[in-house]
Amino acid sequence: MRVTEIFFSIQGEGSRAGRPCVFVRFTGCDLRCGYCDTAYAFHGGADMDRAAILAEVARHPARFVCLTGGEPMLQRELPDLARELLARGYEVAVETHGQRPLDALPAEAIRVVDVKTPGSGEVATDLAYLDRLQPHDEVKFVVCSEDDFRWSREVVRRHALEGRVQVLFSPAWGQVAPRDLVRWMLESGLDARLSLQVHKVVWGPDVHGV
Ligand SMILES: C[S@@+](CC[C@H](N)C(=O)[O-])C[C@H]1O[C@@H](n2cnc3c(N)ncnc32)[C@H](O)[C@@H]1O
Ligand SMILES: Nc1nc2[nH]cc(C(=O)O)c2c(=O)[nH]1
Ligand code: SF4
Ligand SMILES: [Mg+2]
């Protein structure tokens, strides 16, 4: 598997934000979101087999592992790695753009799907997988404008996501003021959750490996 970095930090995003977590960041992505804060993971990295990744994860005192990237679902062995982590008692979350099949992942793995908004420049044509998510999964919209928020709200409605999965709205860093996003959320009446990138508040926006 191709790995950019493995680090121990707090989960900065989503409904599990604030919890200690080991991050495994895989190298490579097939999308190019305009706002991507992790372009350093598009290339480079080092080959590690699953045993080496498991050993590195085990160096840290955490029970929660986040598989991210780049795009983790481009790694052929990702479902096997997730299964091995679960068998060792870890809670496992997979951060993905959702534009690669997710069905090979074990059901116990938490799918955190970032539904790419028009503002990302990488909207998907097929969102049918949203209808197969489970209650512990999360659907995240990174909002670049009020138009993006309206578009996201329509996806939530069309796929009946409210109350069925965790629905999260996150401001694209530096593009949307959190207070504007909160206002749009409250005006919409949706039962959704604001997600800020807590690690950027703690360590600053440009620090890698946190
Ligand atoms: C770097 S991506 C890696 C996982 C996967 N490729 C994806 O897009 O979900 C992890 C998360 O960071 C978010 N992200 C990246 N740049 C961001 C930014 N400038 N502001 C807010 N969220 C950002 C992405 O939208 C995604 O939800
Ligand atoms: N602390 C921290 N939390 C995160 N949650 C998701 C991240 C990601 O880049 O996928 C991330 C990250 O890069 N850092
Ligand atoms: S899919 Fe994720 S890693 Fe790839 S460009 Fe978009 S935000 Fe960055
Ligand atoms: Mg990140």
From TrEMBL:
- Tell me the Gene3D superfamilies matching this sequence: Aldolase class I
Share what the entry says about its subunit structure, partners included.
Answer: Homodimer.
Entries under HAMAP family matching the protein: QueE
User: Which EC number applies?
Assistant: 4.3.99.3
Binding positions (substrate): I10, Q11, G12, R25, T68
Q: In which pathway does it act?
A: Purine metabolism; 7-cyano-7-deazaguanine biosynthesis
Q: Which family does it belong to?
A: Belongs to the radical SAM superfamily. 7-carboxy-7-deazaguanine synthase family.
Q: Which GO terms describe its molecular function?
A: 4 iron, 4 sulfur cluster binding; carbon-nitrogen lyase activity; magnesium ion binding; S-adenosyl-L-methionine binding
Q: Where does Mg(2+) bind?
A: T38
PANTHER family (UniProt xref): 7-CARBOXY-7-DEAZAGUANINE SYNTHASE (PTHR42836:SF1)
Q: Where [4Fe-4S] cluster is bound, by residue?
A: C29, C33, C36
Q: Where in the numbering of this chain does the Radical SAM core domain appear?
A: 16-205
Q: Which keywords does this Swiss-Prot/TrEMBL entry list? A: 4Fe-4S, Iron, Iron-sulfur, Lyase, Magnesium, Metal-binding, Queuosine biosynthesis, S-adenosyl-L-methionine
Binding residues for S-adenosyl-L-methionine: Y35, C36, D37, G70
The protein, known as: 7-carboxy-7-deazaguanine synthase
List the catalysed reactions: 6-carboxy-5,6,7,8-tetrahydropterin + H(+) = 7-carboxy-7-carbaguanine + NH4(+)
The record's free-text note on cofactor binding: Binds 1 [4Fe-4S] cluster. The cluster is coordinated with 3 cysteines and an exchangeable S-adenosyl-L-methionine. Binds 1 S-adenosyl-L-methionine per subunit.
- What is the documented function of this protein? Catalyzes the complex heterocyclic radical-mediated conversion of 6-carboxy-5,6,7,8-tetrahydropterin (CPH4) to 7-carboxy-7-deazaguanine (CDG), a step common to the biosynthetic pathways of all 7-deazapurine-containing compounds.
Cofactor(s) for this UniProt protein: [4Fe-4S] cluster; S-adenosyl-L-methionine; Mg(2+)
| Keyword 4Fe-4S on entry | yes
Choose any GO biological process term that the UniProt entry carries and state it: tRNA queuosine(34) biosynthetic process
